[in-house]
Each structure stands twice: as structure tokens, then as C-alpha cells.
């Protein structure tokens, strides 16, 4: 596979899971077949698995329904020189123009070029290298790794506040480029349900959907303008149950929004499928108000037995039936998952 030298995402992404890796690693299975990651984003878990050699010899399917993101990965894979040349020039422009340069690139170059590409059918194979470079530039210098479109489909993320943003990480991009051109690695635009068509018993699937808002006021709705509401969360639960029943090793990280908790904790079908749930503390930075980014809990659902040395802050709750223990007062320490 590729050289391993601290492989990690080259994009910042809302909901990126770098901070949660110490927790998620406990669930990486000892053995598995193919690997699927249907909510790829910046791919924190994918790059981590790769870096640890855990994907060597395994077929990998990475997908996301954000066509710009996948188009960017495709060009980093097959046209890295062109991407880097454009990115170097953007970085130089940013050095001189800063925030004004960001806005000018976003409004007079990125959005118009995107519109042309979209009008031509949004084919990933024709996503221009210049667009890929602009996406990386806007991502590295824009607000908090957000990818947000307005109602007419234009990218409208405001500039971020960084003194010296690292725009071109050549080594990381070279490593990622080699990754995306590996014969066993497929990167595609797809809705998460596609994994149902492909994953077989013993394969490993990691799901990291957009978070449901934790409260009615936290109305962050998503990444591409379409949002990921209760209906999608329900469909996702069904996909998890179907895969687990098939013997696929699944791992889901999700928010502890009430609508999500209802779908998993104490849910009979979830328990029958052999899935268990855990909650653990996490920091989340989606809220624009820094004082509302405090510690929150994260939900993990999996049929993989986690490694034993979990942080003592972990809590476990059974999902085997509707009568499973509920409520903060009755949480137990982590127990074997089956
Ligand atoms: C929480 S982010 C994933 C973050 C990722 N784990 C990381 O470390 O960067 C969720 C991703 O799901 C994608 N997404 C949203 N709705 C989707 C859907 N219906 N099917 C597939 N991907 C979707 C978004 O574009 C976004 O990249």
C-alpha cells in the first residue's frame, strides 16, 4: 500500500472525526473483508485505518453524496500536478490579498466554474483540477471546514479567521494522491444506502452521518443544503440493522440528539441484530457560538466487540430490548458487546 507517514485528511471538515480517533480505534475489527465508508467527508477514519496498515490487502469503497468533494479526491488522485500548480498560485494570492482574495476566488471563479460543471452534468470524471484546487483553498481558509450551499446552489461559506493558514501541504497531498489511485480503492458519489448493494458478511462499514441538531435552536442542517433529517436517520438505522443481520461489521458514530437516541437505545430490532450502543464525551464545533461548543456526548453503535482498554469515562448500555436500562442513573461501565 502507500507509505505511512502520518496519513491524515488534507481537508478540514465539519464533523471530522480526528479528535474521536482514540475512541473509534477501539472498534476497529481484528479481521474483516472489504472496507466501506459511505459518509466520507475528510476521511479521518479511512486515513487512520490506512496509516495503521489495517486496509492492506482489502478492497475499499469510499463514498459521499457531495460531488465536489469526490471530484476533488478524484483530481488529487489522477491530476495532482495540475491541482498543486493551481493551489500554489491560490496560496500566493491569499498571501497578498487574504480575505478579499478568498471572496474574489469564491464568487468570481469557484462558483461560476462550478455552475458550468454542474450544467454539464456534474460528472466526476470532468471535475476540473482548478476547481479541486479552489475547493482545497476555500476549505483551508474558509470558516471551520464548512461546505455550505445557498438556495441557488452556490457555495457561500464565509472566510475563516486564520493568521497563517496552511494551504498547501504537498507531502500530505502526495500521499493522498497515491492512496486514491490504488487499484483496490474506489471513490464514488453515492447515497449511504448504496452500501446495502455491496457489503457482504465480514466486511467492515463505518458510518458517520451529518449530526442531527441537539436542540431546536441548534438548527445546523447540513453540508450541501439538503440536510439530514429524521427520515434519513431512520433509513440509516434500517441500513445498519440490515447489514448487521447480514453479518457485516458496522460502526456508527452519531449525535445524542433525542431523535437519534430513540432509534438505537433500547430499540428491540437494533438489539436483535446484535448491535450495542455506547455514549462518550466529545467536543463538537459546529455551533458558531464558541460558548455553545462545550462538551457533548457522542453515540456509538456497533456489533464489533471493542478493545478492552477503554477510557474510564466510557459508558455502555444494552440495546437488546425495549426494557434495556435507560436514563443517566442506570448506565453501566463498558461491558462485552455480546
Ligand atoms: C459528519 S460528515 C463525515 C465526516 C468524516 N467522518 C470526517 O472525518 O471528515 C458527514 C458526511 O456525509 C455526507 N452526506 C450527507 N448526506 C449524505 C447521504 N445521504 N449519503 C451519503 N453521504 C452523505 C456529507 O457530505 C458529509 O461529508
Describe this structure in words.
The chain is α/β, with parallel strands linked by helices and 338 residues long. The protein folds into two domains: 18-65 and 190-333, Rossmann fold (3-Layer(aba) Sandwich); 69-171, Adenine-specific Methyltransferase, domain 2 (Orthogonal Bundle). The chain has ten helices and eight strands. The chain has helices spanning 21-24, 44-51, 67-78, 80-119, 129-141, 170-180, 195-198, 230-246, 258-264, 268-272; strands spanning 35-37, 60-64, 185-189, 204-207, 249-255, 276-283, 295-302, 315-317. The chain has an eight-stranded mixed beta sheet, with helices on both faces. Helix 3 crosses helix 5, helix 3 (67-78) packs across helix 6 and helix 8 runs parallel beside helix 9. It is globular and about 60 Å long. The chain starts with 20 loop residues before the first helix and ends in a 21-residue tail after the last strand. Bound molecules: S-adenosylmethionine. Residues 13, 15-17, 38-39, 41-44, 64-66, 191-192, 208-210, 223-224, 228, 232 line the site of S-adenosylmethionine.
Query: Which topology of the largest domain does CATH recognise?
Result: Rossmann fold
Question: How is the largest sheet built, in terms of strand order?
Answer: 3-2-1-4-5-7-6-8
How would the global form be characterised? globular
Separation of the first and last Cα atoms: 34 Å
Structural class: alpha/beta
Number of helices: 10
* Overall helicity: 25-40%
**How much of the sequence is in beta strands?**
5-15%
Please indicate the count of domains. Answer: 2
How can the largest sheet be summarized?
8 strands, mixed
- Report the order of strands and helices: HEHEHHHHEHEHEHHEEE
Relevant CATH superfamily of the largest domain:
Vaccinia Virus protein VP39
How many strands?
8
Radius of gyration: 20 Å
Low-confidence stretches: 216-225, 311-338
Output mean pLDDT. Answer: 86
CATH class of the largest domain: Alpha Beta
User: Per CATH, which architecture of the largest domain?
Assistant: 3-Layer(aba) Sandwich
Small molecules (ligands, ions, cofactors) in the structure: S-adenosylmethionine
Amino acid at each position: 500500500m502507500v507509505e505511512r507517514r502520518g496519513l491524515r485528511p488534507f481537508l478540514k471538515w465539519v464533523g471530522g472525526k480526528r479528535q474521536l480517533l482514540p475512541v473509534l480505534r477501539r472498534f476497529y475489527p481484528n479481521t474483516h473483508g472489504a472496507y466501506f465508508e459511505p459518509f466520507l467527508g475528510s476521511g479521518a477514519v479511512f486515513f487512520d485505518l490506512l496509516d495503521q496498515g489495517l486496509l492492506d490487502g482489502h478492497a475499499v469503497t469510499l463514498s459521499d453524496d457531495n460531488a465536489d468533494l469526490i471530484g476533488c479526491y478524484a483530481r488529487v488522485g489522477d491530476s495532482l500536478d495540475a491541482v498543486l500548480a493551481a493551489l500554489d498560485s491560490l496560496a500566493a494570492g491569499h498571501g497578498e490579498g487574504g480575505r478579499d482574495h478568498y471572496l474574489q476566488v469564491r464568487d468570481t471563479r469557484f462558483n461560476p466554474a462550478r455552475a458550468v460543471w454542474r450544467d454539464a452534468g456534474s460528472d466526476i470524471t470532468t471535475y476540473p483540477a482548478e476547481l479541486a484546487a479552489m475547493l482545497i483553498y476555500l476549505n483551508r481558509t474558509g470558516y471551520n471546514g464548512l461546505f455550505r450551499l445557498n438556495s441557488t446552489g452556490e457555495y457561500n461559506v464565509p472566510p475563516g479567521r486564520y493568521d497563517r493558514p496552511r494551504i498547501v501541504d504537498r507531502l500530505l497531498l502526495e500521499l493522498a494522491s497515491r492512496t486514491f489511485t490504488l487499484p483496490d480503492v474506489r471513490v464514488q458519489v453515492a447515497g449511504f444506502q448504496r452500501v446495502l448493494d455491496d457489503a457482504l458478511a465480514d466486511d467492515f462499514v463505518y458510518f458517520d452521518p451529518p449530526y442531527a441538531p441537539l436542540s431546536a435552536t441548534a438548527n445546523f442542517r447540513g453540508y450541501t443544503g439538503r440536510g439530514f433529517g429524521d427520515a434519513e436517520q431512520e433509513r440509516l438505522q434500517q441500513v445498519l440493522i440490515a447489514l448487521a443481520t447480514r453479518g457485516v461489521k458496522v460502526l456508527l458514530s452519531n449525535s445524542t440528539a433525542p431523535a437519534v437516541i430513540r432509534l438505537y437505545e433500547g430499540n428491540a430490532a437494533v438489539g436483535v441484530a446484535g448491535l450495542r450502543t455506547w455514549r462518550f464525551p466529545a467536543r463538537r464545533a459546529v455551533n458558531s457560538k464558541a460558548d455553545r461548543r462545550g462538551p457533548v456526548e457522542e453515540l456509538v453503535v456497533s456489533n464489533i466487540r471493542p478493545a478492552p482498554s477503554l477510557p474510564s469515562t466510557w459508558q455502555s448500555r444494552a440495546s437488546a430490548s425495549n426494557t434495556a436500562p435507560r436514563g443517566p442513573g442506570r448506565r453501566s461501565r463498558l461491558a462485552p458487546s455480546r
